[in-house]
Here is the input.
Amino acid sequence: MSHPSPSNTAQDALKAADARRLILDGLSPVTGSERVELHAALERVLAQDVIAPLDVPMHDNSAMDGYAVRAEDLSAGSETMLTVVGSALAGHPFAACLGAGEAVRIMTGAVIPDGADAVVMQEIVRREDDRIFIPAGQQKGRNLRRAGEDLAAGSVALAAGRRCGPAELGLIASLGIGEVVVRRRLRVAFFSTGDELASIGQPLAPGAIYDSNRHTLSGALARLGCELLDLGIVPDRPAALEAAFAKAAGTADVVITSGGVSVGDADFIRELMARMGEVSFWKLAIKPGRPMAFGRIGDAVLFGLPGNPVATMVSFYQFVQDALLSLMGVTPLPPAARFAVRADFALRKPAGRVEYLRGRLLRDGTEPGVTLAGAQGSGMLRSMSEADCFIVLPEDCTSVQAGDTVFIQPFHGLVWRTGKRT
Ligand code: AMP
Ligand code: MG
Here is the structure.
């Protein structure tokens, strides 16, 4: 792996886009797969294509409640009278063939009877006993769902690399398939570094703080469906760190640490990482989250994230998450959602770095807007908790005025990203 040297100066800090590319370029998915029951495939990544063994739907069927008719019986310019000879309900087909001048009462989802080639919706039909009167202008093929129109037998219903969400579970079920082959889970080891850190339940020594990064990372990783190896808090001591890195790299596909990668801070962590593996230290042209380490120790991919709690989360979502999806076998990677909205705030910023502000979407006006989610210090987790999006200010931006257009990345969509390119 070749990465820009760790001795970057402020002027040659690595651009966010370049860092993303350097990270993603060198990754290939974990090997190993398992066959799981349908529901256990939620958030898992398909290791094989799912081929449709049958047409969905199996038969031409009705998209409406109404009457199945022969289009050739319908007169183009005037009302048509037909005789109702039977009915077809979902699961209860009409057994005979439709003759000239005949119609069958049909419900949504019922198989189209032989001979019929259109459905007339009941709202426009007048019925008198067994006779119906259909207005002029109805056409062949109307209100029909064709056999195989959703999925054709033999076709790839879902390609390998697709991450399964609720829609995929339903789609697989619609094919009558109860098990799928998915990639094995990604094993991710993580620990926090810092002599000042205490775990929940421990007394706080003077100057100590509770470790929060392990918990934000644990939540973010669990949502991705990773197997978690929480290695706790490791003090800023070379021997302890070396042991933690060795254990993590020996058992996991990915090692994520937080803290200790800033310039001049606990320098021996950098030395240690570099000695144990092939690791580059980057100064990224971003805020928050300037320092970051990336590389490998043994077969494991290493991410050394900055310690400030907001910086940890920003780096995770901007650089680590897609790398994990890629290692999980998700292909193609879904593009991150990015929307232009109106800024409801003003600020100045230096050129040359991307800033990821924490924002709150405004849903009151006619035009979507965004405001800042409270104080923006990189240690203030509250800004992440109160935010529902990142506001991404590009390198060349030097100020934002209220009313300007800015780009946001929403934290949540209605439906999770599953790996489908739109
Ligand atoms: P560092 O990157 O180690 O220089 O840490 C930067 C800042 O983040 C310091 O104020 C640390 O106390 C804080 N910090 C580091 N790790 C954590 C953690 N796991 N939880 C909360 N704060 C942390
Ligand atoms: Mg530290």
